[in-house]
Amino acid sequence: MSNDIKKTMPIGVFDSGLGGISVLREIVSLMPEENYIYYGDSAHAPYGTKPLDEIRRLSEADMSFLLARHVKAIVIACNTATAASAEILREKYPDIPIIGIEPALKPAVLWKPHDRVAVMATPMTLKQEKFQNLMHHYETASEIYTVPCPGLADLVEQYELTGPKITKYLTDILAPVLEKDIDAIVLGCTHYPFVEPVIREIVGPNVKIFNGSHGTAMELKRRLMENGIKNDSTVHGTIEIYNSNSDDKTLEMCKRLLNS
Ligand code: DGL
């Protein structure tokens, strides 16, 4: 297939559920001229507390859903699925660019010398070798504290984005690292940016909050250009949203979050 045909094909983006919309939002703002297909697997969310084999099987099914819709590149908009499956998917599908996301530890560490950084992510992301290697690489430059957040992605999936339930969850889980007087927090799960206003309230104005969406969007752009398949259109592209929970409420929520 020629690159001219590929240029107009959509970019596929997937996540275990609603979280990847926070990445899609960033990608669309960087490249509004592209066409997008988003697939969220809310019927099987959360991934972050599932066994590795199951996450790999689900990630491959998500990828197949998008490949069947003739996408030219895939974004794994899920830290957990990236840590568990990106390498395997790249080996299995060498002909399509696959861009993953990882906790934005590097910008957080480089932001300020010898800062204290907390990384919030799913238990699975934090225990994977990919993250452990990243952390070992930077642990001489900063004090790094991991904050596994089982259940937080579920609260986002249940649209608990504000109110007493989410405030209590975040207050309790952040209390130990707040005692360490942290300088920065990395949101290492794509669901978490949707509760960033609550996190901000709890940590106050002086803690800097990082997430990996922008880096992922930039890497996608770079890969499209390198492969000669970036869309040259000058008008806005289309965005199709699908979810394994195909009820109206889930799809409505995805659209709301995309425009938030
Ligand atoms: N949004 C996913 C991530 O970035 C995980 C949420 C889940 O546990 O399914 O890690």
List descriptors:
260 residues, alpha/beta, 5-stranded parallel sheet, 4-stranded parallel sheet, 47% helix, binds D-glutamic acid
Summarize this entry quickly.
The chain has 260 residues and is of the alpha/beta class. It has helices spanning 3-8, 21-30, 52-67, 79-92, 105-111, 123-127, 129-138, 152-157, 164-178, 196-203, 213-226, 248-258, and strands spanning 11-15, 36-40, 73-76, 98-99, 116-121, 143-148, 184-187, 208-211, 239-243. Helix 2 (21-30) links the parallel strand 1 (11-15) and strand 2.
**Element-by-element helix/strand order:** HEHEHEHEHEHHEHHEHEHEH
As laid out across the biggest beta sheet, the strand order is 4-3-1-2-9
- The number of strands is 9
Compute the number of helices: 12
Bound molecules: D-glutamic acid
Percent helix range: 40-55%
Using the CA coordinates, give the radius of gyration: 18 Å
The main pleated sheet reads as: 5 strands, parallel
Low-confidence stretches: none
Fraction of residues in β-strands: 15-25%
Structural class by sheet pairing and helices: alpha/beta
| Averaged pLDDT | 96
Could you tell me how far the N terminus lies from the C terminus, measured between alpha carbons in angstroms? 37 Å
What oligomeric state do these chains adopt? single chain
